[in-house]
Amino acid sequence: QVQLVESGGGLVQAGGSLKLSCAASGGTFTSLHMGWFRQAPGKEREFVATISWSGGSSIYADSVKGRFTISRDNARNTAYLQMNSLEPADTAVYYCAADQPLPGGDYDYRKSTEYHYWGQGTQVTVSS
Predict the structure, then answer these.
(1) What are the pLDDT digits (tens) for 49-73?
(2) Model confidence at 102, in pLDDT bands (50, 70, 90)?
(3) What does the DSSP assignment read for the chain?
(4) Quick one: which of 2, 1, 11 has its CA closest to 122?
(5) Torsions phi, psi of 70, nearest 5?
(6) CB count, 10 Å around CB of 122?
(7) Bridge partners (DSSP) listed for residue 20
């Protein structure tokens, strides 16, 4: 059973930066496709970014493209989300997610339903 623990959230002024971390345990990290989602009050959970097991492929939501960077350190079993030029609209609880794809499977990792494992979330608040 894979367990995910996020950290790094907090309060930051607009234009500032934060780096979120997601530490994974209980599984083989290099077999996991990782993703970040967020949920603002009163809104549905939305896709932010996703990265392949090797780190060689990543996809971003249009709203964060050019400002956020997803990465992973397979030696540390950790995924990251570097967030720059933060805006009040980025305020949300940020969730780390993971999935172990099957060989030959067809997945759309922009969809939350593709992920089997979720962290507890970390709050990011951007003040104007």
Answers:
(1) 999 999 899 999 999 999 999 999 9
(2) confident
(3) --EEEEE--EEEETT--EEEEEEEESS-GGG-EEEEEEE-TTS--EEEEEE-TTSS-EEE-TTTTTTEEEEEETTTTEEEEEE-S--GGG-EEEEEEEE-PPTT----TTSGGG--EE---EEEEEE-
(4) 11
(5) -95, 140
(6) 22
(7) 81
pLDDT of residue 98 exceeding 90, the answer is yes
End-to-end CA distance of the chain: 40
Question: What distance in Å separates the CA atoms of residue 8 and residue 82, rounded to the nearest whole number?
Answer: 10
Question: Above 90 in pLDDT, residue 104?
Answer: no
Residue 78, CA atoms < 13 Å, CB-side half-sphere: 15
